[in-house]
Design a protein that fits this description.
The complex is a heterotrimer of chains A (302), B (314) and C (502). Chain A is mainly α. Chain A has ten helices and no strands. In chain B, helix 5 runs antiparallel to helix 10, helix 5 packs parallel to helix 13 and helix 8 crosses helix 10. Helices cover 78% and strands 0% of the residues of chain B. Chain B has 314 residues and is mostly helical.
Chain lengths: 302, 314, 502
């Protein structure tokens, strides 16, 4: 699995080059070609791209403001004036969906960035150093993994106080142990490869070895996991918001829209329908993309 | 085998202790005075002071922790601040509920996921495979709680087919009990079915390629017999392992589903307890789910070894 | 034995199908009650269970008059310091213990001295009790207390079995023993509370159910779906926005009563550093915010007009309401003028609230209305537990919070508005208001009390430490087969005279 790596030659000064035969073969083009040939992955990428573009364009799209209220049009069904209907205080649901996409996508990406940013160093250090460092980090990781993910996120979000930013931190921290474990396992595997021995033999510092050989080689599986975790994180943000611990009004996020909508299921089912469908689609998109990446990066499956 | 399990349990002990410390510290960090939440509308300072003293909230954190863990080791998990019921009683009340939900969800997941995985592997690369994959991924991608409220709206409110919430103990009225739990179990089961389908597919793919199946085919056995009797039997090892792991996750993972369907299980108890700052309950439930989770992990590993003789010697 | 059983069977057959079907009444509650000990409990929802479990010394009518329950009559001494109560004869507790003057004395003592007791402040005026005879008790007060009888119409007046209470101590709530129409059978937290008919109930003829089961169903939509599907017979706290659909449903009946409590925005005027804000320091800013809000439109948008707009601690329907200060109409110009006068144009106001969606919805309406008057409202959602502790600690600018209400007006105003009030989180302090509110406590003359409250409310309408917004309307939805239900402004469910028909 770890052979599926991509080391840009520019990073390697000639002097540091290990013997050519231990360098993993370049797979960049092959990966890209495979991804392009995979209709599911392309479909996923398209969905994700669609939502990203919509979210980015929110300020320039010809839609009412997400906080513009109209007391005369409270909980109105979809119509020409409001294609997706209006919400509990007369705001345009389409506009809130589009602005809400920002919050939901951001929640997915930022929390995974937090998980990666903390998880990779810890995992790599544990794997690389071994011994006590490894034992301590591994035990803590196991403990965190045994505590239910959502409960952990709920407790953390409650501790930090309900807001989108805090929800992202809470989700990021709760997702971190998976990345620690993955990064550690991958590091251990990479360490058994001959080129690390060679790099040590020619006297490279630990930092250099970590940076030039280990990180690039453990990257692909982490990328796959990260893509899939974005999907999980988006659902987690929605779940926290659904419990009132995420995005706070009047700012919209799909999860907080659902939280409000559940009180009006009978009178205004559209309020619950659109955010749910959007979450479903974007999560499906990330899942398809992640699957495609996995297939492309892991030669065994194909 | 026994020594393997023994070793795993020994390793699990520090992990569980760590979880208990972690949860203990985390919830003490939660803003909001539990006693104030307890005091409700009438906040009499004199009573607040008494309650703080009574529940040892004035002690240093480590004293509180050692007091708690000391009692916990003797089987006393404390009492719920909110209702004053012993936490152990609560766990005893909730465990059967969540187990029933988890088992029903697993059954639904197995019934959907395993056949779908087999067919998908058998028809690898065809549109059937592709469709099964998309459906499985959809199951993974739909937010449980949203599916839950939508099903309540459709099945209970609009059609009136199934009750929208509640719980009926299995022993009292088995049929009603299953009926009440059907919708939440289905909601939970969809996500699991997806996971299970994908694992089944990859396990079957491995087996179908093996010499063993090729031999069976060469012997002129019918396709059905080859797939079901020979291939599936071998693919069962990883499937059973995954099911066991999923069960452990389920015990802890039914949080939102229980919330939506008002099922009085672990998940609902713990969420309400976090919001009410009911420390002893949070602590007890997390400890319990963590133990269950780890136990299921050990069981999965043990099963894997039993079912897969090649592992025994390694 | 077998003859008795035959008799009972025959009786059952004679009574026909009604009797058989009336066996179990299922009630959907909006929350899970807390501990079931009248001296220790603190939630509104718990009181709904007590209405079937524990009888009180006195009860109220829907019109808020105090009527006999376990006490059949009572008289005040001339100086208002001695209350003599005649007790109902032949009443027993669920464990067979007799209810008598000794039991009342025990209960008052328990409310006062049990360390966990939440009732202490409610019975604080009682100096001593004297058992005159089995059915007469004399209660002596340290100072006149006009609110005491109303306290006896609530948890402080609930009588528990002295024997059971003495045996269980602070754990009494795990198996409560009272003298109400139903006995405690079992409780599964967050799932159900089951009560069984108490055959020895003094008013047993009024009870038509063999048992009653309370099911906490927190989600409003799910609660409604349950009563619609016939899985429960009655639900409390129907969502205001579901009223229309219940009215349209031929199989459901709706009942409602404006509550005794209020919902509003509490302003931190002197509770620590966070009080040093324009809205905390200048009553004109508070009045401007109040004027900027159209309470009727708010009620319409958020509650489909079902709640009652308000501007005082008790609703306009209350006999204590000061009609000289009606619910103000929205006046954006006047609000702007007040802000200009205070030099606070474009002032920022932070309102904290719990993460409850209804409160958030309400505040978003407030936010949008205030903006038109030049007040920038920001909403900070906290978990309820956090909101409470920050409010007590003074770590807030303003806070959206309510009060479930008490029968006596004192319960809605004294502890919030007096300098030393137990729940005075705004730390508003005005000696004049203190005098008026304390004075109203010591008089048993209704007209005199009303005059005191009117005067206090006139001052509070100027100072406005709490901006009252609306009064909740209790809403019950039930199957049309349920007969005899009466809506009470205290939001309780009294099962006397209620029956199920086919």
């Amino acid at each position: 699995m770890s052979t599926a790596a991509d080391i840009p030659p520019a990073d390697l000064p000639p002097a540091d080059l290990p013997p050519a035969d231990v360098l993993p073969p370049r797979r960049k083009n092959r990966v890209w070609a495979q991804l392009r040939a995979n209709p599911s992955a392309l479909f996923g990428a398209t969905i994700v791209a669609f939502f990203v573009i919509i979210a980015l364009l929110a300020p320039v799209l010809p839609i009412p403001g997400p906080a513009e209220t109209d007391w005369g049009a409270v909980r109105k069904a979809p119509s020409a004036a409001h294609i997706l209907g209006t919400d509990e205080i007369g705001r345009d649901v389409l506009s809130r969906m589009i602005w809400g996409a920002q919050a939901s996508l951001l929640a997915g990406v930022v929390s995974v960035a937090i998980a990666l940013g903390l998880g990779i160093p810890l995992g790599v250090i544990a794997g690389y150093r071994g011994g006590w460092t490894d034992a301590i980090i591994s035990r803590i990781t196991e403990a965190l993994l045994a505590a239910p993910f959502l409960i952990l996120a709920i407790a953390l979000a409650a501790f930090l106080g309900p807001s989108l930013r805090n929800a992202m931190i809470a989700i990021g921290l709760s997702a971190m142990p998976i990345f620690i474990r993955l990064a550690r396992g991958q590091t251990l595997q990479v360490l058994t490869e001959g080129y690390i021995e060679s790099a040590r033999a020619i006297g490279l510092t630990h930092l250099a070895i970590l940076w030039r050989y280990i990180l690039p080689n453990i990257f692909p599986p982490l990328l796959v996991q990260a893509t899939l975790t974005i999907a999980t994180a988006i659902i987690a943000e929605a779940s926290l918001s659904f419990l009132g611990l995420g995005q706070q009004p009047p700012a919209p996020s799909w999860g907080s829209m659902l939280n409000t909508a559940k009180a009006f299921l009978e009178q205004a089912p559209w309020m619950a329908m659109w955010p749910g469908i959007a979450i479903f689609l974007v999560v499906l998109g990330f899942n398809l993309l992640g699957d495609g990446l996995r297939d492309a990066l892991d030669p065994r499956e194909t | 085998m026994l020594s393997f399990i023994g070793r795993r349990i020994l390793i699990a002990i520090p992990t569980i202790l760590l979880i208990s410390v972690f949860v203990f510290v985390l919830q003490k960090l939660l803003p909001g005075d539990p006693v104030l939440a307890l005091a409700g509308e009438d906040r009499n300072p004199e009573i607040l002071a008494f309650l703080r003293e009574k529940y040892r909230l004035n002690d240093p954190l480590y004293v509180q922790y050692f007091h708690w863990i000391g009692n916990a080791l003797q089987g006393d998990l404390g009492i719920s601040l909110r209702t004053q019921q012993p936490v152990l009683t609560l766990i005893g009340q909730k465990l059967p509920v969540t187990i029933q939900l988890a088992v029903m969800a697993l059954i639904i997941a197995v019934v959907i996921g395993v056949p779908a995985g087999i067919i998908s592997a058998y028809k690898k690369g065809t549109w059937i495979d592709w469709l099964a994959n998309i459906v499985a991924l959809s199951g993974l991608s739909v937010p449980n709680f949203w599916l839950g409220i939508m099903m309540i709206l459709l099945v209970s409110v609009k059609l009136g087919w199934l009750p929208a919430s509640g719980y009926q103990p299995l022993m009292d009225d088995p049929l009603q009990s299953i009926k009440v739990m059907l919708m939440p179990a289905f909601v939970l089961g969809t996500g699991l079915a997806a996971t299970l389908m994908r694992h089944t597919r990859s396990a079957m793919l491995g087996v179908l390629k093996s010499d063993y199946v090729r031999t069976a085919r060469a012997k002129g056995l019918g396709e059905m017999s080859v797939v079901v009797k020979h291939a599936l039997r071998n693919a069962l090892v990883p499937i059973v392992t995954v099911v066991t792991l999923l069960f452990g996750e389920l015990l802890a993972g039914a949080v939102l589903t229980e919330q939506i369907f008002t099922i009085p299980g672990f998940g609902k108890l713990i969420v309400d307890a976090v919001f009410n700052r009911d420390y002893a309950v949070v602590q007890g439930i997390v400890l319990c789910t963590a133990i269950a989770f780890i136990a299921m992990n050990i069981l999965a590993d043990a099963l894997y070894r039993v079912l897969n003789p090649r592992m025994r010697n390694s | 034995m077998s003859f008795k059983r035959t008799l009972a069977l025959t009786a059952a057959l004679l009574l026909g199908a009604t009797w058989a079907q009336a066996a179990d009444l299922k009630i959907g509650l909006a929350e899970d009650p807390d501990v079931l000990d009248p001296d220790q409990s603190r939630t509104f929802v718990g009181r709904i269970v007590y209405a079937s479990l524990c009888d009180k010394l006195v009860d109220i009518t829907p019109g808020l008059e105090i009527v006999p329950m376990l006490a059949t009559a009572w008289t005040w001494s001339e100086d208002g310091k001695t209350l003599t109560m005649d007790l109902r004869e032949g009443v027993t507790f669920h464990d067979g213990e007799p209810f008598n003057a000794e039991a009342v004395a025990f209960n008052i003592n328990r409310s006062q001295t049990l360390e966990e007791s939440r009732r202490k402040s409610e019975v604080a005026s009682i100096a001593s009790t004297k058992v005159v005879d089995d059915n007469t008790i004399e209660i002596t007060l340290a100072n006149p207390d006009a609110t005491l009888i109303a306290q006896f119409a609530d948890r402080a007046g609930m009588m528990v079995s002295p024997k059971a209470a003495a045996a269980a101590g602070a754990d009494f709530g795990n198996a409560p023993v009272c003298s109400g129409p139903f006995m405690f059978k079992e409780r599964v937290q967050q799932d159900r509370i089951v009560l069984e008919k108490f055959p020895g109930y003094w008013n047993a003829d009024a009870i038509n159910f063999d048992s009653v089961t309370f099911l906490p169903i927190t989600d409003g939509t799910v609660r409604l779906a349950n009563v619609r599907a016939g899985d429960v017979h009655l639900i409390e706290r129907l969502s205001a926005t579901d009223v229309a659909s219940v009215k349209a449903d031929g199989s459901l009946a709706l009942d409602q009563a404006v509550s005794l409590g209020y919902q509003g925005i509490t302003v931190n005027v002197a509770n620590g550093d966070r009080a040093q804000t324009p809205i905390g320091q200048d009553a004109r800013v508070r009045r401007a915010l109040s004027l900027a809000i159209d309470r009727e439109v708010m009620n319409q948008v958020v509650f489909d007009g079902v709640m009652a707009a308000g501007n005082q601690p008790y609703p306009p329907t209350s006999p204590w309401y000061n009609s000289a200060i009606p619910v103000p109409a929205r006046d954006v110009e006047a609000a702007k003028a007040l802000l200009a006068e205070a030099g606070a144009e474009g002032v920022s106001v932070e309102i904290q609230t719990s993460t409850d969606p209804v409160g958030l919805q309400l505040l978003q309406v407030v936010q949008s209305m205030a903006l038109e008057a030049g007040i920038n409202v920001s909403i900070v959602a906290k978990e309820f537990a956090t909101q409470l502790s920050e409010q007590t600690a003074g770590a807030y600018m303003t806070s959206q919070i309510g009060w479930s209400g008490r029968v006596d007006p004192d319960g809605n105003i004294h502890q919030f508005m007096t300098c030393e009030g137990g729940i005075n989180d705004s730390k508003y302090c005005n000696p004049e208001v203190d005098d008026l509110l304390n004075g109203a406590r010591t008089s048993n003359d209704v007209a005199e009390r009303k005059a005191n409250y009117d005067a206090a409310l006139a001052i509070l309408a100027e100072d406005m430490p709490i901006i009252y917004l609306y009064h909740q309307t209790w809403l019950w939805a039930m199957t049309t087969k349920l007969d005899g239900f009466v809506a009470y402004p205290d939001g309780m469910i009294r099962l006397q005279g209620v029956s199920l028909s086919e």
